[in-house]
Amino acid sequence: MTLWPLDSFHGGIHPPENKSQSNQGNIQYPPLPKRLIVPVLQHAGQPAEPCVEIGNYVYKGQLIAQNMTAISASVHAPSSGTVTAIGPAPYPHQSGEPYLAIEIHTDGLDLWQEPTPEINPSTLTSAEIFHIIQQSGIAGLGGAGFPTAIKLSGKIMSGIDSLIINGTECEPYITADDLLMRERADKILAGVDILVQLTRPKNVLIAIEDNKPEALAAMQTALAKRAYHVVSIPTLYPSGGERQLIKILTGQEVPSGSLPIDLGIICQNVGTAEAIYNAVALGRPLISRVTTLTGAALKQPMNVECLLGTPIQELLDFAGLDKQQLSQVIVGGPMMGFSLGNPAAPIIKTTNCLIASTAQEFPSPEPALPCIRCGECEQVCPSNLLPQQLLFFAMGEQHEQLKAYNLPDCIECGACAYVCSSKIPLVQYYRAAKADIRQHEQKLAKAEHAKQRYELRQERLRLEEEQKAAERQARNERLARVKAAQEQAAKQESQQAQSTGSISDDELKRLKIAASMAQVALRKAEKQLAVHDTEALQTQIASLKAAAKQAQDALAAAEAQLAQNSATSSPAAAPDEALKKAKIQLAMRRAAVKKAEKAETDEASLNSLRQALQQAEQQLEQLNQTHTKASSTESTSTEQKTAAAPISDAMKKAKIELAMRRAALKKAEKAGASADELTQLQLAFSEAEKNLAQVSSPNNPG
Amino acid sequence: MTLVLIAVAALTILSIIFGALLGFAAVRFRVEGNPIVEQINAILPQTQCGQCGYPGCRPYAEAIAAGDKINKCPPGGEATIQALADLLDIEPEPLDAVEGEKIPVVAYIREEECIGCTKCIQACPVDAILGSSRQMHTVISSECTGCDLCVEPCPVDCIEMRPIETDLRSWKWQQPTRQYQIIASDKEALE
Q: What's the complex ipTM?
């Protein structure tokens, strides 16, 4: 045993210890239960997610629920068997409400998945050790159940000041850690070795209250050559509280709102140290724990190494429960535990003690009296709070005042209520107030979150609306531009129409449609009038009639104008058309003559046909003359360039005639025609030549 | 006479200097908006349900700041009225709601009935409904404020408001019942 300078915390009490009932024998091993109820939440923080299904066979130590967040611990099958249910099941909680659990029907074989070889932890790196601890579902076994991996992450990497192994076990009745230290000191120390390897502390302090001399001796013996300090501390409730223990051993106070690690201190329970050894060296996850079974209603109070998930009822029966004597089952110690509603609830990682009490042992609380302001509670508070003041604020639900008086620092140890001369259940007031504050804060946080989301949504909607408005404006502008252009074009058109005095076909069509529509509307109205004769209808008909008449007039005027237009424009078009007609007639007559010649018709009819042909030829010639005259007059009125066209036409003709004459002359020469004929042809040729020269002379002078 | 003139001149100069100073301060340290609106808005539950008759919590906060009554918020209930009364230093009034204070609820979409019309998505003030056109919608219950604005627009009535389930994690300790032994006259006064 080391002599270590000890400090002390404020307050504290000495309740009757009641530890001797259960710490007499060795740790017992109850029979394997037929049915294990393994809740997915056995620790502080978020529940684990089940990763097995109903009907699956699971081996002992197999992962059945995975931790999804950092502040969570995974859950493993405590024994081999079949998963029979996953759903709400009885749960050890003060509310008595059920919670999600995985139910396993054990097959009695207690079969490990595979034999894991023993590992020497000193060969592992810090990261490997940390990983194993994280995967093994280890949570603090002292009672609070904080996931161990979280405590060992973060600031520890640079080494810590002190590693404190908590073996104080200050609460009355509980002897689980006492027995564990007596029987498995070497395993605990091996676990401490692993923690030391991981955290590299300057000091390792193993704190044990002086009411456990056997445990102290066992630990001291097992220590051997290790440079750890086994420190005996005076028995005082609640010296096992983390902050109180730190104060005793180091004299330092953990400030409100910060954690021991901020001072470079880590606290671990002795049971947790053993679980770490089992996980790292033996490869066994946390599937069982040592629990104290005690209370006057049990025939053989004892400590048991029980599988997590074992129904509490079975354990109590194992310890010889006298049902007649039983008044209530308390989970945890008498100071901080709670009364269990349903004994079918299982043992979980935080269940360090079960007290089956009789009515004499824990009589129902006396009725509370008004506070007399004796100040006893302030004297014993280990957190240096003002319990009396807190009580009044809690009764008045003054949350701001409660926070100002540091209610969150209350560890709910129950020392104040223990000494209260008015028997006021102070801790219950504090718990209710803490829950109210937490709920209110959650509500505020949710409101703030909702506000942010609402404002973001409003902003988004506003931007969308703005964009839409901009698009709409752009579209409108584009449409306006197109419309303006169309209107302008229409205006120009109508101006043109007015200036030329003509009306387009489209216009006429439109007018026609308008007129007919007006007519239809009028007819409909008249029909209606025939059915019911009202003044309104009559006036309507009158207006419709007027409209129809107007439309008809407009149409008539348009048609008249159109007719006039066509009349004025026809003479201009006449010469061409007449010429065409005459040409067609001529061609037809010629064809008829040829046909008649071929068919060898009689001379008279042939003659008449020839005459008709001649007539047509004459007509055409006449027309041709007028046409050329007209075009020549036209051309003279226009520019010089356009005048070139009829002249060149005449020249073309003359040239063609010349070429034809030449061809005829050559033919005659070749054919050996008579001299007369030849001279005649030559004359004609020269004449054509002259003609051409005459035609081309104005175009080509010189 | 000169003494009086000097005094008048000195006071005039001083008043001009301080006036300029105040004018500068009024411009330089101008507070944007009404700070009391922010404080009122922080107390309101931000469900954006519109049951107060205003389109959201902030408009109601503005209305309260302008003199409207503080008892129009059913989701906030008596606690909100009390907080508003404390803030504004006025008398709390009983809640002005037909159904009184409601238990906290979240919207739930019966997904097999949903036709994917997106009407509820458009109605949700906090974007707590997930889904797209002709696809099944669902409520993100952690984001839902329970304002029930999505119930009305649903054409197939597949949205219902369900009370928030309580389990042992949301369970909370209640204050012990007080049974003080009282003297006879106190008892009579109580009865």
A: 0.79
